[in-house]
Amino acid sequence: MDARLAEYVRGQWPSLVRYATLLCGDPVEAEELVQSALVRVALRWPFLRDKDDPNGYVKRAIVHANINRWRRLRSRELPTDRLPDVGSPDALAAVHDHDQVRRALATLPPRQRAVLVLRYLDDLSEQEAAAVLGCSVGTVKSQAHKGLAKLRESFEADGVLR
Amino acid sequence: MTDLEQLLRDALQEAPPVAPASPDPVAAVTRRVRRVRLSVAAVTAAAAAVAVAVVVPFAGTGSSGEQKVQPLGTPTPSASSTLPADTTTLWAGGADWASISPTGARWLTYFDKGGQVLSLAQVDSAGRVVHEAKPPAPAGEVYAGSSVVWVVGSDQGGNILSRVSAYSTSGQLVATKTFPTTLLSFAVVTGDDLFVQTGDDAGNNGVARLRLHGNAIDETDVALPDHQGNGIAVTANGAVWADTEKHLVEVQATATGLRVGHITDAWSLHGGDDAKNPDALWSADGSRLIELTPRLLSSGVSVAEGDRIPVPGTPQLATTDAAGNLYVLTKEGTLYAFAAATLSSGGPAPVASVDVDGGAVVLVADPSGGVDYVTGGGQLLRWDPVR
Predict the structure, then answer these.
(1) In this complex, is the C-beta atom of A50 within 8 Å of any C-beta atom belonging to chain B?
(2) How many whole angstroms separate alpha carbon B21 and alpha carbon B28?
(3) What is the pLDDT of residues A88-107, one digit of tens each?
C-alpha cells in the first residue's frame, strides 16, 4: 500500500468506521464496509488525482459499498413505508435522545440514508451529494424529501414533532 | 433549516466514536488488496470494472472470505493449540507468500507489524529460519527456482513502479531490476526463469520472461492478444499458459525470444501442478475441477479430456503433492484433500477438509507431503491429512 494511503488509513480508521456505522447502523458491518472501500481505493490509487486528501473519494467508496451491500441483501430485507415503533410514553424526551434519531435513520433505505448523511453530516450541497452518489440533483432532492418525510411522519405519529 | 433537519444534523454530528475491532487496518487492507490482485479466481463484474480502469493486473476476484487479521507480532514460528488436525505451523504471523523450489527449499515473504516492510526468508520443515534478507521495495511475492529465488513487487502509489530481485539460494541479493511504467502481477517460475504477466497504462498486456545472466536480469517480452491478465500457470513439463479471461494462451520460448503458441477457448486457471499428468493445468466449471491438457490442441483433441472432480464449493486453487494426492482450496475458504487412490475411481470424494482463516492466497505442495498454504490471517501452515 502506498505510504500516503497507509498513513491516511491509520489516522482516519476510527472516524471512517464511525461514518460507516452511521450509514449502515452496525459497527461490525461498518468495518467490513470500510475495508472493502479501502481495497477499492488502493486498487485505483494510481489514478487518484488528490492523493494528499483522499477523504472524499474514500467516503464515496464507503457510501457505494453500503448501497451495494444493501442490493445484495435486499431479498432478505423488507423495506416498509412505516417505521417500526420508535416512541415510548415519554417520546418527546426520547426523540431528543440523538441515539434514537440515529436508530430511526438506520431503518431508512440505504439511498435515503446516504443522502441524509451526506447532506447533514458532511454538509454537502445537493449538487455535491449527487456527484458522490452518481445520480441527478433531482434524485438527491427526492430521496432527501422521502427520508425526512418518513422520519417526520414517524415522530409526528408519536406526537413528538408537530 | 427545519426542526427535524436540525435534530438530524445534531444527532449525526454528535454520534459517539466507535471502537474498531481491527488491530491493524493497514495490514488487513494490504492483504485484501493482494488477494484481489493475485487470486486466479473468476472475475466479478465489479472487479472487472476495476481491471479495465487499471489496465491489466487487477483481474480481481469475488472472493468473499472474511479477513481475520491478527496482530502481527514478531514473526517467529510457534505452535498453536488451536490448529486443525494434521497441521503444522511454519510461520505464525505476517506471512504473505510462499514458494517451494524444485529442490524442496521453502521460501516465504512476510511483513513486519504494520504491513509495510517485507522480508524474505527460507524456513525449514520446523519453521526455523535458514536464510533471511530484506528485498528492496517494492517487493511482495516470492517464486523459488532451482538456483534463483525471485521476489516480485509492484507499487501503485503515485507513479507505477515494479521491481524484480534475484537472490541466490543462500539468500544473497544477486541482481535487481525496476520497471518504471509496468505493473507486474501473476508469475510462475520454471527452471530458473521467471514468467510474469505485465501491463501498463496504455492497455498493453503481456508476459515477460526474466532470466538471471551473471549479475544482470535479462528480460524478454511477448504481447498477449487480450487486454486482461487473469493468471498464469506452468505445467510440470514446463509449458507456460496465461489466462486472459477470453483465452488460455501458451507462451513459447524460441531461439530468439518468446511467442504466443496455442490458444484455447476461455478456461479459468487454478494451478498447474498435477502429479498424474505433467502436461495438465487445473481449470473449473462451477464446482467441478477439470484437468485440462492444452497440449492436446496440437493433435486436434479436446483439451478437457481429463478428470472431472466434484468439489463441495467453487475451486480457487489446486495442486497435487508428490504422492499424487490432490488439494483444492475453494473460494468459500475450505481446503479439501482427495487421496490419490480415489482420483481415478469415477466418483472421487474428499477424504479431509479444513477451514482456512481468511481464505488462502497461495497453495504449494510440501516436499515432505501435503500442502503449504498462507492464510489470509498471515500464517504459513502445512497440512498433511492423507495417510
Answers:
(1) no
(2) 12
(3) 444 444 445 677 788 888 88
- Closest CB to A1: pick one of B4, B15, B33: B33
* Contact predicate B269/B232, CB 8 Å: yes
pLDDT at A72: 52
> What would the 3-class secondary structure string for chain A be?
CCHHHHHHHHHHHHHHHHHHHHHHCCHHHHHHHHHHHHHHHHHCHHHCCCCCCCHHHHHHHHHHHHHHHHHHHCCCCCCCCCCCCCCCCCHHHHHCCHHHHHHHHHCCCHHHHHHHHHHHCCCCCHHHHHHHHCCCHHHHHHHHHHHHHHHHHHHHHCCCCC
Q: B50 or B102: whose pLDDT is higher?
A: B102
Whether A129 and chain B come into contact, CB under 8 Å, resolves to: no
* pLDDT per residue as tens digits for the range B291-349: 888 777 776 767 777 778 999 988 888 999 989 999 999 877 899 999 998 887 777 88
Closest-CA distance of chain B to residue A79, Å: 21
Query: Does the structural domain B23-383 have CATH classification 2.130.10.10?
Result: yes
Q: What is the pLDDT of residues A115-140, one digit of tens each?
A: 899 888 888 888 888 877 777 888 88
Cβ <8 Å between B32 and A102: no
Residue A46, chain B, CB below 8 Å: the answer is yes
Asked if A17 lies within 8 A of B155 by C-beta distance, the reply is no
B245 near B205, Cβ under 8 Å?
no
ipTM: 0.76
Query: What pTM, to 2 d.p., does this model score?
Result: 0.62
